[in-house]
Amino acid sequence: MACKLKRLIWYVNSQLSSAGGGERLLLEGLNHFANVGIETALFTAGYPVTQVALFNGAYKPKHLSLKEEARFLKKISKLPIIGKLIRLHQIRQTLKAFDPDIVVANGQYEAVVLWILKLSGLKPLRFVCFIHGSFFQFADDIKKYMLVYKLGFRKIWENDHVYRTIIPLKPHRTISIWIRLKTEVIALLEWFGVRAAGIVFVLTKKNKVEVEILYGHAHVLALHGAFPRSIFDLTQNSDKKTTLGIADQKMIFSVCRLVKKKQVDLIISGFALFAQRRSDAILVVGGIGEDEKRLRTLAQEAKIDDKIIFAGFIPEAEIYDYYRSCDLFITADNADYDITTFMALALGAKVVASAQHEFDPAIKQLGLLFEAKPSAEDFARAFDEAFAEEKKASAQERKLLLDSYTWEYYFSQILASILELF
């Protein structure tokens, strides 16, 4: 069936500068589509892509350059509205030159651009859209309060205990008239853009319901991917506990971008309580980010900085050994889905995850998953429960229950769905 698709562009209207779950997903997608014979390209509309975002060279996608504007246009391209129109024209010309059969919009903003280009006569332009996560996960995102989402917001908010707890029914700060009008326009454009996508892909059933309610889209698919199928057969190359000098300790491992949304402060607070009754435990925090200084200060204030190792950026070649070496993996991300969680489970690690995450009931049969409410006390309780559990899941058991989370299965389902558009 793949022969119906000759060319595909994955469009991201921003720079790629960090290595996270979103970056891994789109790069794995480009790899998969290329491996089945589709000419693929990453298009960032002129924004740079760093080696870090490519996981230090682990991925090597074809990167489309933005078409240069005519020399006489450069002089006026810095004017606010004129500049945006020129940039839109450049994007149009780039897409037209590559002539893709399908364009993947990496989010709502990209869907808006593609919808406008489609209206401008760039035909045939088929595109699908990814929406990973929800603006309900960000208390400060005022877009959810705009008129186009008003009825949907109220319905979603009233039916979700977590949202009722962390999200105010009305903005908690005063919004100026100008910001309000600007955000109303952006929200309305995104509503039209997402609705124009042939398919909207989300990672959880909860996200699917939200997108259907907020955008009124009739073709929303909840699919998930997190790791390559080969992960089940991997062997450990090195013991990271020995490398870190904690061979006789119990290693609790976390890896993510160090930003507030990931709630590593919650992990540290929970660990501080747990460490009071478990003196042989060490928390290893992998990743870099803007929140690192605050997290180090928090560890010092809790007087457990000697029990926390900030490992920094972990190279792609070493990440699996960290999962294999830890006694417990932990994530507190304010999200419904987290790639690292399923990667840890696939490698046989016990996992403590926030109860906000969505898990298929079958996953719990592995006996490796322990859920915690978003509080330090409940994370500490989950640590105790996880360390008390001695069950281990074989590679065969893990493969049986987690194969649908492999990139191969995930993108084969996405490709089959896209082909239905033709």
Describe the structure.
This protein is α/β, with parallel strands linked by helices. The chain has 2 domains: 2-225 and 406-419, 3-Layer(aba) Sandwich (Rossmann fold), CATH 3.40.50; 231-401, Rossmann fold (3-Layer(aba) Sandwich), CATH 3.40.50. It has helices at 21-35, 71-74, 80-98, 108-119, 150-158, 161-166, 177-196, 205-215, 240-243, 264-275, 292-301, 316-325, 339-346, 376-388, 395-402, 407-419; strands spanning 7-11, 39-43, 63-64, 102-105, 127-130, 200-202, 220-222, 250-255, 281-286, 308-312, 328-331, 351-354, 369-372. The strands form 2 sheets. A 7-stranded parallel β-sheet has the order 3-2-1-4-5-6-7, with helices on both faces. The protein has a 6-stranded parallel β-sheet with strand order 10-9-8-11-12-13, with helices on both faces. α1 packs across α16. The longest helix is centred in the middle third of the chain and has 20 residues, at 177-196. The N and C termini lie close together (11 Å). The model has no long low-confidence stretch (mean pLDDT 91).
CATH architecture of the largest domain: 3-Layer(aba) Sandwich
- Which strand order spans the largest sheet, edge to edge or round the barrel? 3-2-1-4-5-6-7
Q: How many beta strands in the DSSP annotation?
A: 13
- Give the mean pLDDT: 91
Secondary-structure element order, N to C? EHEEHHEHEHHHEHEHEHEHEHEHEEHHH
* Terminal Cα span: 11 Å
Give me the Rg, rounded: 23 Å
Q: Please identify which CATH superfamily of the largest domain we are dealing with.
A: Glycogen Phosphorylase B
